[in-house]
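Reopening closed ticket. The problem is back. First fold of the pair:
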Amino acid sequence: MLEKFPVPVPGTGEVLVDVRVAAVNFPDVLLVANAYQVPMPVPFVPGSEFAGHVVAVGEGVSAFAPGDGVFGTVASGAFAEQVVAPAGQLTRIPNGVGHTEAAAFGVTYRTAYHALRSVAQVRAGDWVVVMGAAGGVGLAAVDLALRLGAQVVAAASGPEKIALCRERGATHVIDYTTEDLRLRIRELTSGGAHVVIDPVGGQWSEQALRGMRWGGVFVAVGFASGTIPAIPLNLVLLKGVTVKGLEIRTFGERAPEQEQRDVAELMELLAAGSVRPHIGARFTLDDSAAALRFVADRRALGKVVIDIGS
């Protein structure tokens, strides 16, 4: 059931946006379930990622004007016809990029690129294993690892997801529901992965770590499986691997120079048409709860979006 709220008013440094498309991310599911690391006071409007047009700007905002096409993020409130966002959280939509692509791009592609470029420092020729490779962050990581010149192994569950990974350019795939993940990683990579990007967690994380070569980098991005794995530290010792974490919410605060560089490079790729998010499912605003359930049940292929305005 939808409820009516007053039209929001932008304060100092804020922008009011008419939302055209919102994107669903796994943290939205966690916030609704009160399972996110930072709880959200209730009541709140879900949704953190959106694209649309500027309606009004608050005092002190000079970078945007009414009519500008923008995309961005907020802590909550994106699943609505209008949203107020800090101007610093908005980016102008490049020419030739639609609202749907813009709404679906920011969170997953920034997460994947920061993990690959800044945290793992992937180099051309590296073997990169992407867990949950058919999901939003996973497909973005496949796209971007290929652009960085890496050799990509896409690990996913089931034939439909494996087929999508191949369609998006992955030449090496593993269905970890039917194959031995550790063994197949070592076979495909001739001795082990240099990098593992893991937005899933759960029972497969340890097997992926066991499939790494000495001195590799394992990046924990999230726990979409719902289970936070416990990694035996003896594996870290024996393999000489480095286990790192990426929290997209605070990355810009902790590594501002890397964040600015990564975002600039990403925007060049988006503007040039070199990368585009895969839209696996669309919902209406009335069906926002169903969209959240769709993501919570791990049925998403790529990004799930909510069409809000015309």
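Second fold of the pair, where the issue appears:
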Amino acid sequence: MTLEQMETSAWLNRAFYKDKKVRALRSLLERDRARAQGLTVNYVGVDKGRSDSRENGVEAAMQICAQTEKEHDTALCEYEAIRREVKAVINGLHDDVLEALLTYRYLEGLPMEEIAERMHYSARSVKYKHKQALDKVCTLLHCIAP
């Protein structure tokens, strides 16, 4: 692959990697929620007369949960924006075969062998078509971004 093709591939892969981050944050959020629901109210503190010296375990767990949820939502919004951008460029190829190939590869994250099987091509043909598609996307991106 040429340097331009590798840069184009990295640009297209942004949605795939952001999706991985969203999934990881979703998993963390589910764990945080389960942990918070499993806690009971338990105040800990030295001075029992002052409420500001106590810490509520459930409250702390809910704050952690809220922070994780905020991070998840932010990552999800970023993913959706990147996905729309990548999909628009892929659709700009106006070639059904190349669009399908790039969608499988960069939006679904499938390996070349599985793409070849789904598209009924040899792995060699898919790799050749992939390079053609990257060249076309590279041309489109240079037209879009000066």
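Update: turned out to be a display glitch only; the data is intact. Residues 57-91 form the longest helix (35 residues). The chain has a mean pLDDT of 88. Please close again.
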